# Entry
Amino acid sequence: MTVMPPPPDRPSPDRPSPARPSPKDYATDQEVRWCPGCGDYAILKAVQKVFADLELPTHETVFVSGIGCSSRFPYYMATYGFHTIHGRAPAFATGIKLANPALDVWMVTGDGDGLSIGGNHLMHALRRNVDLQILLFNNEIYGLTKGQYSPTSRVGTRTPSSPTGSLDAPVSAAQVALGSGARFVARSVDVQQKPLVEVLKRARAFRGTSFVEIFQNCIVFNDGVFDGFLARGVAAEAQIHVEHGKPLLFGDKGAKGLRVRPGSLALEAVELDGRSPEEAGILVHDETDRMAAMLLAAMEPPMPVALGVLYCAPGQQSYDALVVGEARPQAVTGDLSALFRSGEVWTVE
Amino acid sequence: MTVMPPPPDRPSPDRPSPARPSPKDYATDQEVRWCPGCGDYAILKAVQKVFADLELPTHETVFVSGIGCSSRFPYYMATYGFHTIHGRAPAFATGIKLANPALDVWMVTGDGDGLSIGGNHLMHALRRNVDLQILLFNNEIYGLTKGQYSPTSRVGTRTPSSPTGSLDAPVSAAQVALGSGARFVARSVDVQQKPLVEVLKRARAFRGTSFVEIFQNCIVFNDGVFDGFLARGVAAEAQIHVEHGKPLLFGDKGAKGLRVRPGSLALEAVELDGRSPEEAGILVHDETDRMAAMLLAAMEPPMPVALGVLYCAPGQQSYDALVVGEARPQAVTGDLSALFRSGEVWTVE
Amino acid sequence: MLDAIKAADVPEPDGTVVDRAVVRLAGDSGDGIQVVGGQFTLATALAGNDLATFPDFPAEIRAPVGTTFGVSAYQIQFGSDRVMTAGDAVDVLVAMNPAALKVNLPEVRRGGLVVVDADSFAEKGLAKAGYAANPLSDGSLDGYRVVAVDMSSQTARAVADTGVSHKEALRCKNLWALGLVCWLYGRDREPTRAWIRAKFAKTPAIAAANLAALDAGHAYGETVELHEDLRGVSVPPARLPAGDYRTVTGTEALAWGLMFGAQLAGLGMTFCSYPITPASQLLHTLARQKRFGVVTFQAEDEIAAACAAIGASFAGSLGVTSSSGPGIALKTEAIGLAVATELPLVVVNAQRGGPSTGLPTKTEQSDLYQAVFGRNADSPLPVLAARSPGDCFDVAVEAVRIATTFMTPVLLLTDGYLANASEPWRLPDLETYAPFPVRFETEAEGFRPFRRDPGTLARVWARPGTPGLEHRIGGIERDYDTGDISYDPANHQRMTDARAGKIEGIADHIAPQSVDQGEATGRLAVVGWGSTYGPISRAVAELRREGAAVSHIHLRHIWPLPANLAGLLEGFEQVLVPEMNNGQLVTLLRARYLVPARGLNKVTGRPFKVSELAAAFRAALEDTP
Amino acid sequence: MLDAIKAADVPEPDGTVVDRAVVRLAGDSGDGIQVVGGQFTLATALAGNDLATFPDFPAEIRAPVGTTFGVSAYQIQFGSDRVMTAGDAVDVLVAMNPAALKVNLPEVRRGGLVVVDADSFAEKGLAKAGYAANPLSDGSLDGYRVVAVDMSSQTARAVADTGVSHKEALRCKNLWALGLVCWLYGRDREPTRAWIRAKFAKTPAIAAANLAALDAGHAYGETVELHEDLRGVSVPPARLPAGDYRTVTGTEALAWGLMFGAQLAGLGMTFCSYPITPASQLLHTLARQKRFGVVTFQAEDEIAAACAAIGASFAGSLGVTSSSGPGIALKTEAIGLAVATELPLVVVNAQRGGPSTGLPTKTEQSDLYQAVFGRNADSPLPVLAARSPGDCFDVAVEAVRIATTFMTPVLLLTDGYLANASEPWRLPDLETYAPFPVRFETEAEGFRPFRRDPGTLARVWARPGTPGLEHRIGGIERDYDTGDISYDPANHQRMTDARAGKIEGIADHIAPQSVDQGEATGRLAVVGWGSTYGPISRAVAELRREGAAVSHIHLRHIWPLPANLAGLLEGFEQVLVPEMNNGQLVTLLRARYLVPARGLNKVTGRPFKVSELAAAFRAALEDTP
Ligand SMILES: Cc1ncc(C[n+]2csc(CCOP(=O)(O)OP(=O)(O)O)c2C)c(N)n1
Ligand SMILES: Cc1ncc(C[n+]2csc(CCOP(=O)(O)OP(=O)(O)O)c2C)c(N)n1
Ligand code: SF4
Ligand code: SF4
Ligand SMILES: [Mg+2]
Ligand SMILES: [Mg+2]
# Structure
């Protein structure tokens, strides 16, 4: 099986920049109002770094969000921003792109905003493949409303609205996205700055909807909920960072890998035991393989949690490009009189 | 790989029936108001047959629906029925089950009702695993509102709202359901009475949300849209009827089968060429294998379209059972005075 | 044949020249009634009559053939003076089957002409329609003039030579009926012929069959020596203002008005909607206007449609969304955001019968409360209503003007009647409309996203993509000066006042309320809004002919109300407010002006009849206060 | 220490016994202000005072330490007569840091006492709060009595022996402050001690530290020879009606009222909601009542919550749903279905500042329009409003009674103030409430799902599971007799009238409107609704003490209005309607009764002050009409 790296299909702007911008140039004068220690700070930092690295113009960028702690994000980016209503950001973002496809539109949402009230809009943006970057901050809780369980909370989560533990089976954001027809699905972690920045750059390069689930720690209402795979001691064994064209290795010094369980449609973890990945039959990550992405997205402990670009299938025009092209549509033009006269017209003298 | 048939976990009521009911006993006195030739008639017939075969009691059954041609269904079943509002039937059905889990609740929806406006409620009913049968009549069109394209319409569908052909990539109902965490996913066809009746019986036997997508012909606005795999000439090659524990064979006299493409996570069709299915490496359908179900659900021409029970993972308590148990909850009981006195109380003389 | 015609004992009005006539065509939904209705309308318009039409669709898409709930009808009134309504009572009913007769006979005036396809009155058809006995012979048609003609056989015979199948032949029955009606009123068949030729250009046999049927129906009227009551009737041309005319439905006029409004504002238009009866046609109409720069988006639901439209406005386009009551209900949260962020938006509500799913295919005016009051919090916004199909054009332009001039969402109310009804429309001279170009903010120096124009109190509109104007807005209360989030109590009061003041101030920027008919003072003011315009107008005219001191005031601006309305209403002894709802505008007028206005309410899913209004007005006048 | 106390130049009122006092505790959201506020409230209640409290949460969950937008406050007024509001002006402010001082100082009356933690007034803290200079020394506190005590150090020293860490020690600062305030008003610390012991049962060191801090704060007041202005103040017990009391928040009372209502109706309760400030607490409270048979469901959004509740009602349970304005907006389509299908449903709206996201943590009354008018079509339903935390109980019972007796959705309005505020509540004798058991239909013979009770016009409630009553209902208009789908025009009129008549008829089944204070006629009627009850009541009492002919009428029933209200209002020269919105009830009264009622409106996200109301009433009386 040969694996071709899919080309990033949106170039970064290539403009003469008098001075390289710094991440700080993308901050606003608004005081950041997340709780001290909230994972959102780290994500903000990563996004500002992406903007600085790519020298993205603030005036051609819009951040759109719903409601939630995460959705306060736009206030802190020195771009255009629209903090809308709960769950509907994908629809606003779609409208913005249809009105002006030349804008670079980023959407920020939470596990409540994006998967509870807003699940349907998310699904439809993904299937339409509107050219957006969607960042879903998954903290497995409703932060802003003080800690009720969310659609990604694990069964048994005790919160004010589930005092004896939640009973609802959670959804997996990445699996929902894949099931909806998403063409770019990635995962990252708030505090893993380097891979997060990389994933965000990949997301921006993709034309169409790029969906990025970011595990984010809510220090106040759900502290340490991802410790199961993020805690120092377990990280190496419990995470796998996937890279296109590279074998799916993880564990201490890459001592383990994933392979297809022979004769089945499942992945299993094996020790390399000194063998080369090829010898051990380790699967090479092909980010264009949707089924592989589904299997990776579905991995839960004791399997490692998959991080990085799980799926990327470029080559399809984005919805906004199909509907209106690449440039901002002009004002309503043309000879309307002629249109009005297009039927049978008679004259009264 | 050994495959165990999952036991149907809800028994049919076992009651002395003076006379076996006939399907007609489940019809109402309301005139059926679908267009002549509409596929909905055949589905109604199948459902009534299921009820008669299983001798289901009308008074312990509720049909709930949203809005659409399909959603008129409850008016024609001599059970309790609630024709609600567009897209929200899963929420009504959930409320009904929480108020009285002893009721047998069937939900009828369409591709517009269930996947456009109602996609989110569908997803959440599925992930919660509320004990419902959800029948989604997929005609790839909005029938009731006179033929606009729907979220399952193929790209290029010309309708009054897409006069030059739709541009939105469609979703796959079964894949959305699997992505949402559904535990029972099946597919059938309006006019395939026998398998349809079987699938519906399986759906009812399942405790939890059983999702059944039924391809339904809208003779007025989308006639023949499924001819690609239903037309007489192509049917054998273009359909595969899956059965748990049986090899995945199709084609004329089962001359073809599906196997895992070696070294990959994909299915491919092969000719048996006189070999036994085992010799040809044909996959045995294991309806408890979610990945296999995803692959089957994703098959499109030139691969055969998969019909039957694609996925069935029983063994999980349904949401309503977890929340309230099996019987109808009693009235609010208990000593409320004691509750009110549970804090600090003082007496003013 | 002759014996099939029964003379009624009610005499036909003298003469063959009449002022106006009401024709209703009715048949199965598969019979092509709407198509021939449209053709007859066109022929009538070309003959110079004023006219008004109203299609009456069945609630079911295509119910089983021959059932009463599958009956589709098309009604037209035409005349030699202003017509304005599709008519109270039908002069001529063409019923293609027993069900159509059953459903529509109550609409026919005593003495009216009833033409039926006798072939369809066999046992099966009668049973399907729920007739126990044949109405053609059991006396139930006594009092009507009846022409029972074997329309199916006649059609089949007429098209025999064209080589079409029997089924295809029978499909031409509607053209046969049209031919007969054309003969009855002396209508030119040439436009219909041209239409048939164009429509069936690729199937010449079908074209020939339809042409043959049309001619045969006509010939039937002409040549068969019919009962004298069936003789041709002539309705002289109307004295309409000079100009070029075409027929428009309210939907078409609305679509075009929105487009023209966007053009006058210099904006692109992003129309976002989700199908719902009777609003879907606006989506269908605009979906065909891509070449003019109109972008349409069929969203996944009404909420997404509203949000996408607001997003488009944020991005510098004219966002428009449309629905009917239940869908508007879903949009109210999003509309609140447009109120809060002060973005332009046009929301069209084609009202239908409710509550809930209600009577989707019937007309009603019961969403005025929802439009004016139906949002959480103090969220005022302008509400406009169109009065007639043609008026939809001007109201749409006005809605765009207000939305963009005042940076506000605007609710535009039409209804099921207006959406589907048609009337002759004098093509406007587009040059006479004053443009109202949007001036997007460009100046970065001292930029504040909520800086207000002192005249209109509108905030600036700063479009993403503009360097130096990067800003962030949202639904949390914003500081009056900076636009940043503010939880300050005094600021909230100031912003609440600013929002209210801006909308109230629109009253100074609209035309003063005029009196449509009658003096500015008098005994009775009839105050209407929306599609009741036609019947109120006719009824007031009738009373004024009788010498009554009645005036008709018809509101386009529901909110804010025109500044001079208070004074106007004071000049009348009584104020009566006819509405196709349970009394909504009347609440507004009473609350605002403390006038003892009374409601005149009808909630049947059908327009007012001129006669019932006239009777109510007379009763009000008798009832001296 | 002593020199830290500055005597103000404004004299303290004579004596150490006062009628009432207002204390406000303020600090960082992490400082545990709400907790000690609650403890002080309990101690005060146990001391026999009447009281009212209001927590003032920051809009942010936990903003950066020391910032103004992270300040959390808790205000309590207590007294020896009826209190009813948390107080206009603060007598004692305890500010744990500079930001708390900055935000809350404007609430303190001139001459009031300000206690601050002097340790926190270092440069960093001042800068975070945005102070350029130290307010303790730059004269900005002139006119207040200031106690700047090194609270952090004192606390640290007091707990030194308990073995807790420095960080844990500082966490006890709130208890130190509570100890001081307890000393100031002579409050018993025993209940707080018991609470500490229970709460920290598993961490005895922490318990010991908190106890030590509490005692140390108290000792500070007792032993240090303070400035004479800081001497202990005594507020004698109130003369409350005899009975057993506890404190309740509006949320608790509402939850319990709903439960008791369901019990009186003999129904199960299915409570379906989606979190939103300030409605979430109702969900939290009910989620803990599973043992009483309450089922709670946290739905995926507000629409699903409303629909699930309606589904539950269809299945024979009491469906209840709750939200705040933006979420209620989303529910309006579903509520329309409950209107159409005539199913019981209670919809609770805890109102907050708007429009749109607005001011989520602030209170407002601006959803009355939405409640009464905010649905598509003619969709009348009853609207109730609670006036005080304790009143939420009775209003909830009344809502359940009306919903089940009349088979209708009921909207119950509370607000952010009521949801969070607490007051002493006399435990009701549950035996005195008349049960209103639901009689589900069981009789199959002649069963019709829309058969109405001639007295109430309510339709029957036939619960799935009952043999022989299988029926189908939905949102399409239903036949008056059979309940089957009907598109008949006359039937639609009849059903519209029936729906309207049923709701209007409720006016005959509710208590007549009483006059809360004053005579039934007079110069000025002040008509209020909802949580303005407290301040209006106090202000009217004040004017009546001055001899003014003012009466206070407070509505529980917003729709339908009580039958005798028209007559009542006629008896007054003027009608004034104070509302925390831009004028909504006033619109209803003017439209309904044509009375020239005037609005008195405040939209700042804060309750009315007694003083501002009293001033407005005086002005109205001067302004003789
Ligand atoms: C219509 C509506 N419903 C509910 C709310 C209340 N609300 C605000 S944010 C939120 C959930 C936020 O959760 P999530 O998206 O996970 O964001 P987080 O705060 O965890 O970042 C809810 C329920 C609202 N603002 N509007
Ligand atoms: C809130 C709301 N929005 C829109 C509609 C209009 N509407 C009714 S059914 C329907 C689509 C039905 O499509 P589908 O669910 O596929 O059903 P089908 O008629 O094809 O069986 C729409 C858009 C409505 N009734 N209510
Ligand atoms: S509540 Fe949680 S998610 Fe919200 S700002 Fe605080 S730590 Fe972050
Ligand atoms: S429109 Fe289509 S789906 Fe609806 S009843 Fe007719 S054939 Fe069936
Ligand atoms: Mg979250
Ligand atoms: Mg469909």
Summary: The CA atoms of residues 158 and 236 of chain A lie 29 Å apart.
